[in-house]
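Example 3.2
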Amino acid sequence: MNLFNPYCYVIMSRMKCCHACKHALDIASKIGRKDVCPHCRADLYCCSNCSFYDPSASKQCREPVADAVKEKGKANFCDYFRFAERSGNDESEAERSRKQLEDLFKA
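Structure, written as tokens:
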């Protein structure tokens, strides 16, 4: 069984992954505001990669004193940023529902 795959949704251990392309990232140092994904060039220091990001929360952030950010996928200056570690089982409820709906109507 081959456990290595560059995409986070296949790997079962928790790791840092790009929000845009889902590639696993080998990051040993702290993420800077200008850092980008080596695979797709998406900003890494953004709400979509933050452990506080929650689409159902107020301002879509679980950090109560953080400022509101309009573009969640773009780099920002938030002092509370903490890179989220995801596992292969992390899916939003919307993604699970969408997959179930697609499976239901497959011909």
